[in-house]
């Protein structure tokens, strides 16, 4: 009988890269997961794309639980870059988890302006916005699997994202190099924006990876 495993899912390759690095593992490529060493339960790391367009097939697999981990935009003005939050509706056994529980808002597009964030916060009361949690949670529920949603804040409620910068990434968060060169030639200021985003993302990714390791390989 196969040994039960945890699945850790990320939308973006850079999220997976940060988590893999925290465990001393390589980054997943394509549909092929990598195993995260040192976990108390065998754990595999997958990249599922923005909007969770590539959730692994759970049928017939010995899965012990699913973690959806990634970056998110803040809706709550009190949140800062690097804050890590847990989905209020997570069903993962929470005896060891001391992260702040909040409601996540699932969007079908990247919420990029401070104005839209403010509107969503007023309408939903959710603390953050992301694009994958609901789909992965439904998949876990359909197989009666424990689910844990974890998000690290990469942009605050007051920050707007440059639409030109967002057009430079593919559904897995990788830069479109050709588009990047053309865009920066048209708008040199875009380089500064990309550097700012990279700095914020680095802080959030480090916090996210640390949290995932704390969950899966806690120190005794």
Give descriptors for this structure.
220 residues, alpha/beta, nine-stranded mixed beta sheet, 6 helices, 9 strands, globular
Strand content range: 15-25%
Share of helix, binned: 25-40%
Classification by helices and strands = alpha/beta
Query: Alpha-carbon distance between the termini?
Result: 29 Å
Question: Unreliable stretches, pLDDT < 50, 5 or more residues?
Answer: none
Largest sheet: 9 strands, mixed
Number of H/I helices: 6
Element-level helix/strand string: EHEEEEEEHEHEHHH
Count of individual beta strands: 9
Mean pLDDT: 89
Shape descriptor reads: globular
- Measured on Cα atoms, how large is the radius of gyration? 17 Å
Describe this structure in words.
34% of the residues lie in helices and 21% in strands. The protein has 220 residues and is α/β, with parallel strands linked by helices. Helix 1 packs across helix 6 (189-216). The radius of gyration is 17 Å and the shape is globular.
């Amino acid at each position: 009988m196969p040994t039960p495993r945890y699945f850790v899912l990320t939308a973006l390759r850079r999220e997976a890269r940060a988590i893999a690095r925290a465990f001393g593992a390589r980054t997943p490529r394509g549909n092929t997961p990598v195993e995260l060493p040192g976990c108390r339960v065998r754990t595999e790391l997958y990249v599922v794309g923005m909007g969770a367009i590539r959730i692994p097939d759970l049928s017939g697999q010995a899965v012990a639980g699913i973690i959806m981990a990634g970056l998110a935009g803040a809706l709550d003005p009190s949140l800062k870059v690097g804050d890590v939050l847990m989905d209020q509706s997570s069903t993962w056994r929470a005896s060891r988890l001391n992260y702040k529980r909040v409601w996540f808002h699932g969007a079908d597009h990247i919420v990029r302006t401070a104005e839209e964030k403010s509107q969503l916060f007023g309408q939903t009361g959710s603390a953050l916005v992301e694009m994958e949690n609901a789909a992965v949670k439904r998949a876990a529920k359909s197989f009666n699997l424990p689910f844990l949603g974890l998000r690290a804040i990469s942009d605050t409620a007051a920050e707007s994202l440059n639409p030109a910068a967002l057009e430079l990434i593919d559904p897995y968060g990788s830069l479109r190099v050709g588009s990047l060169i053309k865009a920066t030639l048209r708008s040199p200021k875009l380089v500064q924006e990309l550097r700012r985003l990279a700095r914020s993302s680095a802080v959030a990714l480090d916090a996210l990876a640390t949290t995932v390791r704390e969950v899966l390989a806690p120190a005794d």
